[in-house]
Amino acid sequence: MEILALIGSPRKGGNTDILVDKILTGAGENGHSSEKIYLYDCDISACLDCRKCKRRDNNCAIADGMSGIYPKLAAADMIIFGTPVYWYGPTAKMKLLIDRLRPFIASARLTRKKGIVVIPSEEGDSCCGPLIQMFRMSFEYLDMDFAGSILAKAYEKGEIRNNLAELDRAYALGKSM
């Protein structure tokens, strides 16, 4: 299985990154390959709603960092969306990426792919409802399968390392693939 992990946190080595790494470690032990993309390293512009992606070639008109991400999304069997909670939603970079998934609606290139959501937040899972709902509805719109989530309480960079139960849960989710 090919796994693509999209890290929507500006903190490399932060809680989101650590949890995603645990999932990838578990999955790797089962022979699955993975790639991780840090969205804050990518130039991702806002969707212009030009609707070129709805035409016959289903390609986005914007030439930016998404041009390299689109084929990786199409090739992946599983996509991990990792983002901390920012104002009860995803980070700006994750939201830009989600808005730019529109070419996959008409092309159906994400159909039956599995999606996992990793969300650390200061408040824990109690504040993640709106964000999980956004991901579930987005997956449904893209005809993807919701394959699980890790909603962890962690705020300061690397704080999640002190929560062995969440780290074990993330590892187990990866191992279950």
Structural overview:
- By secondary structure, the protein is α/β, with parallel strands linked by helices.
- Helices cover about 35% and strands about 20% of the residues.
- It has six helices and five strands.
- The protein has helices spanning about 15-30, 65-75, 90-100, 105, 130-140, 165-175, and strands at about 1-5, 35-40, 80, 115-120, 145-155.
- It has a five-stranded parallel beta sheet, with helices on both faces.
- Helix 1 (about 15-30) packs parallel to helix 6 (about 165-175).
- It is globular and about 50 Å long.
- The N and C termini lie close together (about 10 Å).
- The model has no long low-confidence stretch (mean pLDDT about 95).
Order of helices and strands: EHEHEHHEHEH
What overall geometry do the principal axes of the alpha carbons give?
globular
Rg calc: 16 Å
Please state the oligomeric state of the protein chains shown: single chain
Largest sheet strand order? 2-1-3-4-5
N-to-C CA distance:
9 Å
- Taking pLDDT < 50 over at least 5 consecutive residues as the criterion, the unreliable ranges are none
Our estimate of the beta-strand percent is 15-25%
SSE class: alpha/beta
Q: How many runs of DSSP E, i.e. beta strands?
A: 5
Main pleated sheet: 5 strands, parallel
- The helix content, as a percent range, equals 25-40%
Average pLDDT over all residues? 95
- Number of contiguous helices: 6
